[in-house]
Predict the structure.
Amino acid sequence: MFDAKPILKNLPNLPGVYRMINAIDEVIYVGKAKDLKKRVSSYFNKNLPSPRTTMMVSNIVRIETTVTRNEAEALLLENNLIKSLMPRYNVLFRDDKSYPYITLTNDAFPRLAFHRGTPRASNKSKSNDQYFGPFPNSVAVRESIQLLQKVFKLRTCENTVFSNRSRPCLQHQIERCTAPCVGLISDSDYRNDVHQAAMFLQGKTNEVIDALGAQMNSAAASQDYELAVVFRNRMQALRQVQAKQFVSDFNVSDADVVACAELQGQHCINLVMIRGGRHIGDRSYMPKNTEGETLENSMQAFLAQHYVAQNSPPLIVVGIKIETELLEEVLSEQVGRKVKINTSAIGDKRVWLKMAQTNAELALSQRAATSANQSAKLVALREALRLPDHTQRIECFDISHTMGEATVGSCVVFDRGDMQNSEYRRYNITGITPGDDYAAMRDVLTRRYKKVAAGEGAKPDLIFIDGGKGQLGVAVEVMAEVGLQDILLVGIAKGEERRPGLETMIFSDTGEMLNLEKDNKGLHLLQQIRDEAHRFAITGHRARRAKARMHSSLEDIEGIGAKRRKALLTRFGGLDGVKSASIDEIANVEGISPSLAEKIYGELH
């Protein structure tokens, strides 16, 4: 069971978004909260609202949070994260039906429309319709469309209605449409209105308002006061729409806000990204080797490594005084436009910077709490297994296959208080009887520890074998053969119906069998490592199996390259069609000679 107390203790009473993460580092739930501390804490009460929630909570091993300025902003950020991460427990939001969009169609006279669902779903025709949003709810979209109609007077009618009009409709009479259907506005003027509407919806608010202001002043100078009032009203209406969608008050639609924090020698850089006038998310970076370094140096290093050699936004707001002249020059030349690094944030930029700073500090406190929790688990595991205090490095092995097909072995590593992903290894296993798990385990362990015995790689303090006495016995033999019999081996036999918490540990040196209580932190660490080995093995197995099943027997025929293979499969509609074809039919395919056709026919039959 996940120990949430260290995390909950450090959560703020602020609005934001939280992400629940399982043992294989997969985000399983994204939610929003008006008060992060209260909302996240509610998941760890005794009485949960449903079995589904109980199941979700039982899979949590880590929680990440992002503080936002208000709950409405948290809602928009939550939607963006759900769309990109697709968490398994956010079923209600998976098809995006709860988050509508505004659409500008790609017709000759584009239509302003309400769209519900993912933009891709309605864009299969590649019509290049433009989508703007998401909005919190349908009411906000409909109100925004009404205001946009008042401002830009774009049509909202279906194409079937538009193409069959002979006179203006009621929308024109109430001054919500310029009636392009009957030619009451020129193509260029209508396109200009569409362009301004799109610019505004992309977050280029100030550019549109400035243009309208210039038009208003021009009309007033010409004493066309009625037209000047129209432009003034447009400007006022635009500001109303802005308040309904956009969470950025910057004078540019694309910007990054970067803050840094320090805790116990560890630095954290939090990057808040604003694109198209919307907060699309943030990310915390934990740089290595920061002991003794200043925050200024860490910030300089981050900006250089993150932005050089990639596209940067026109504005980067930084929460610390650093030298920016050289970096501005390099980034501006790189992207071909002015890039400003602001180190003296005021007004709205200061509010955003404060939010980024809060997120950086929160990420550090959560990391410290997680690290302390992992350390406590390791101590509990040492005590439970009666291991020496210096036990740090643990390696775990698992075998995965489907009825003996595409067998893959995995090795995962726990060291320095965390899973070391860069040290994971997979082993494709061949030359054994399909389904022989003992032979597969022998192959993997031999390949792994022959190298370790020869001085390649670090020697583990403890090895977990995902399996019972049979697999453990094979492991003991292999370790004796390679001269590493001093390493303790522990087999992890699955419990009844493979239920977590019922695992039995089998010791290689004594044959002793041990079961730990379900709430034992040492057991939680063992389960985390074992589950990661299983995930890593099955992911590799599935990839290998898929590759094998995609393999065409044509690939084994000498003289058949990718181009000829494609021509054959295209002509006959697949491999079965090629097998059914005669030699003469095969020879009629471009690039296939009669002699090669005979060879192909002979190989396939």
